[in-house]
Amino acid sequence: MNAEGVIRPPYAEMARFLDATGQEALDQKRREAEVLFRRIGVTFAVYTEGGDPERLIPFDVIPRILSRAEWDRLGQGLEQRVRALNAFLADVYGPKEIIKAGRIPAELVLENEGYLKQMEGFTPPGGVYTVISGIDLVRTGADEFYVLEDNCRTPSGVSYMLENREAMLRLFPELFTRHRIAPVSHYPEELLETLKSIAPAGAGAEPKVVVLTPGPYNSAYYEHSFLADEMGVELVEGADLFVRDLQVFMRTTAGPQKVDVIYRRIDDDYLDPEAFRADSALGVPGLMAAYKAGNVALANAPGAGIADDKAVYPYVPEMVRFYLGEEPILSNVPTFMCEREADREHVLANLDKLVVKLARGSGGYGMLVGPHATEEQRADFAARIRARPGDYIAQPTLALSTVPTLCEEGFAPRHVDLRPFVLFGRTVRMVPGGLTRVALRDGSLVVNSSQGGGTKDTWVVEDFFAQQSQTLGGMTQTQTLTTIPPAATSGED
Hints:
The protein has two domains: about 10-200 and about 295-330 and about 400-490, no CATH class; about 335-395, Dna Ligase, domain 1, CATH 3.30.1490.270. The chain contains 15 helices and 23 strands. It has helices at about 10-20, 25-40, 70-90, 95-100, 105-110, 160-170, 175-180, 185-195, 220-230, 285-290, 315-325, 340-350, 375-385, 465-470, 475-480; strands at about 45, 55, 60-65, 130-140, 145-150, 210, 235, 240-245, 245-250, 255-260, 260-265, 295-300, 330, 335, 355-360, 365-370, 390-395, 400-405, 410-420, 420-425, 430, 435-440, 455-460. The strands form six sheets. A five-stranded mixed beta sheet has the order 3-23-22-19-18. It has a five-stranded mixed beta sheet with strand order 13-5-4-20-21. The longest helix is centred in the N-terminal third of the chain and has 25 residues, at about 70-90. It is globular and about 65 Å long. The termini are close together.
């Protein structure tokens, strides 16, 4: 519902379905989803809590729904943002114009651990650094979307987006006859075409693409194997590849086979023991030399992490203005930089109202949600901030939107975010929607699966008003929907 208590138009048919379907039937569907996910093996791994590290990712059977108009607006903002982030990476590893212009502090970039000097003066094949980006969005109670953070290194979760849709198709086929829902199943094809589009010039008409994984003990190994299978390409580990004469080859039973594009899911530090960590057994010796010789493409480019550093994040709107000459379509969440004295004093005085994050943290770790923290926890973070202020940023606790979620007690509101996936090769490609992550714990703002979060299917509903005219029947009902004030049609949460 919107702030006036009126059901949002994209949810109208879903509301009728939920009214007509008892909780017992929905609970049964939830149990069926668990069996389905367990049978398929849709899991993630947590290695810090003991016991069996493999966990079944919680899945909520009530989808999140966006209208096509909402998605189109988001899509424009996402493309704009990813183009600016790529321009920033090309600039800071090249002429550094944005630094020379004083629009971003030099030390914030050049002394950042995410900045790789090995990439200076080098342009990746195709000129693209962030081939696959995951942009985390949150919606506030005021119906505005904000970018919470950018993921430009190895964004994960797209396999859950695809499996969630497959599960909903199996569990609720009748709902798909009542809605025109934009498909997402073509993502693997779009990903493969994007990866092929960045292949080196000498790759030929059909570039050889592989997915490079750290192996089955990685928390996202399910996704690595899933995407390789869906794209119809080889899933390889570091030992399966070797470099000869600055060319990358894959070991096969038929002999060495040249590799043109590597979708790597290994962190920079472990990618090549000759260029980074000498003790890495996960990478490929000589890979960076082959890369810099222009003989293989890597997605994403090493060093892309400087663009998604949380201390760099506040400057992304300025990147949009500087590189594209446009005003940002999507806004950032207001952010306080603890390395700045004025910001730090504000944060320390308002820890009970703010969310504090590690500038280089991820997965919901190293974070303080001030309003839900104890005095002891806030005191601990205050000491950490004073000791290493440059390691922390802080943001206000926004009035995050909630969506209906099936809980033990019935339907309940739970906070969500949205991670659309943006593919950038010769063109920018997106499938409508993304991964909706939901904080299943009552009152929690942490949506990460490793921190008790789950996922939902995300629907972008096509031709909503025409569909409602057919579904409801009668001009009066259709007119009622189409004359809802604009504020009531701008969101779904």
